[in-house]
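Inverse folding, one chain.
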């Protein structure tokens, strides 16, 4: 299980751009984790011939950042090189050929299936390549990463998912498609793990790793008699090809630090509502990360929001309501500070604001979605508030690292006791795997423990 900081590291990395009829905004934040192990890759225009095609990916590393960073730098090129050779055999020049001919070729079901296979081969090849790298063995690197990627052609969205990061496509304000997490307790995953001589305990591979598919994690890929796809942990991605339509609105790729505290449906409501008040996609994903942090996410967080031409546009009425809400929040904070002065604490402010049941809060975000505004206002009114203890354990506040660390330690000790004892259950109830922050359940089963099996 990863270690936690005394307070979250909230400096962020941003990126944005546009092309091929798409706009995107990216934000990444270390959060409570001791290290930032996430990585990402964005590429609009894949080659001269694939100029109308784009690639987006998020990599959620664990036990170090080597595999996630290496994958973000090399995976797309490995897949493309495999595809260049394959397409040449098919009589298609995907490197320097005619753009329109390539776009048309990628509509052919047989060619699409060939491309799908090269995506799978690319994931497996980069896994093999990394294992043979001198730096990997010399330094004893044992890290791994989940990966979720999308290729956008003019007519298709091609999803490739390995692990429990997730991608979601929204159309007509509803979920058109979402990837499925690869968890050890899923029937197909459990069967492979058991056939490889392993077991699923406390929802983890051999009681330690919380995902059943990942790049790296070679401690779980040591059976010489088994192919790569049949090991305890597989690098084989699940690839889905979805037809694009004019109704498509946006695509979100994010690591499990986001999905730990917000469901697919909540994300759709939240993103759709925020597109009505912000035209800058970086602002939306930054607010998403801050909202998830306030909801109790303790992981690194990375998210890429990609919008299609039919994405929700700015709504003047929504913008005005947002302005009224922000003014009300600032006004109430000023009243609290007038009463309590320099003794004003973040938890105190949040508890008070929540009692007001303020109207027009961001959908599925609640008062947590206004943390940036609340803290920036307090920074002005109570500039010395940074001295507030990070171990405040008030159950109604937002700044609860003491509880976070305590529960993490208790769960780790519980895992160790169960692993050492004879009576080990393969699965345990949701109540044993959750805790409550504010009024939201936080599923903690995605923390990666990489103790070797």
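Residues assigned per position:
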């Amino acid at each position: 299980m990863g270690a936690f900081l005394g307070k979250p590291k909230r400096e962020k990395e941003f990126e944005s751009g546009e092309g091929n009829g798409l706009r995107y905004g990216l934000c990444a934040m270390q959060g409570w984790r001791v290290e930032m192990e996430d990585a990402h890759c964005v590429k609009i225009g894949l080659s001269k011939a694939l100029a109308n095609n784009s690639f987006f990916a998020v990599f959620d590393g664990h036990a170090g950042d080597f595999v996630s960073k290496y994958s973000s730098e090399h995976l797309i090129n490995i897949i493309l090189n495999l595809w260049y050779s394959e397409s040449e055999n098919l009589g298609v020049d995907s490197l320097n050929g005619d753009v329109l001919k390539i776009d048309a070729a990628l509509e052919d079901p047989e060619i699409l299936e060939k491309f799908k296979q090269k995506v799978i081969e690319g994931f497996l090849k980069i896994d093999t390549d990394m294992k043979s790298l001198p730096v990997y063995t010399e330094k004893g690197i044992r890290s791994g990463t989940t990966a979720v990627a999308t290729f956008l052609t003019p007519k298709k969205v091609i999803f490739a998912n390995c692990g429990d990061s997730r991608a979601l496509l929204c159309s007509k304000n509803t979920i058109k498609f979402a990837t499925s997490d690869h968890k050890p307790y899923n029937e197909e995953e459990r069967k492979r793990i058991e056939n490889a001589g392993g077991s699923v305990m406390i929802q983890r591979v051999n009681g330690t790793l919380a995902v059943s598919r990942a790049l790296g994690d070679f401690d779980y890929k040591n059976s010489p008699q088994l192919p790569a796809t049949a090991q305890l942990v597989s690098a084989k991605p699940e690839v889905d090809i979805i037809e694009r339509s004019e109704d498509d609105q946006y695509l979100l790729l994010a690591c499990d630090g986001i999905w730990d505290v917000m469901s697919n449906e909540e994300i759709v409501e939240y993103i759709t509502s925020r597109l009505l008040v912000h035209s800058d996609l970086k602002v939306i994903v930054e607010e998403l990360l801050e909202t998830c942090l306030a909801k109790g996410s303790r992981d690194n967080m990375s998210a890429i929001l990609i919008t299609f031409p039919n994405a929700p546009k700015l709504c003047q009425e929504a913008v005005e309501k947002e302005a009224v809400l922000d003014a009300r929040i600032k006004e109430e904070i000023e009243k609290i500070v007038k009463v309590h002065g320099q003794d004003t604490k973040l938890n105190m402010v949040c508890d008070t604001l929540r009692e007001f049941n303020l109207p027009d809060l961001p959908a599925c975000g609640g008062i947590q979605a206004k943390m940036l505004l609340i803290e920036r206002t307090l920074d002005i009114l109570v500039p010395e508030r940074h001295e507030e203890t990070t171990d405040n354990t008030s159950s109604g506040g937002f700044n609860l690292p003491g509880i976070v660390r305590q529960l993490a330690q208790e769960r780790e000790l519980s895992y160790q006791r169960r692993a050492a004892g004879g009576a080990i259950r393969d699965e345990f109830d949701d109540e044993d795997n959750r805790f409550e922050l504010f009024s939201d359940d936080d599923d903690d089963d995605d923390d990666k423990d990489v103790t070797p099996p």
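The first strand starts at residue 4 and ends at 19. The chain is about 35% helix and 25% strand.
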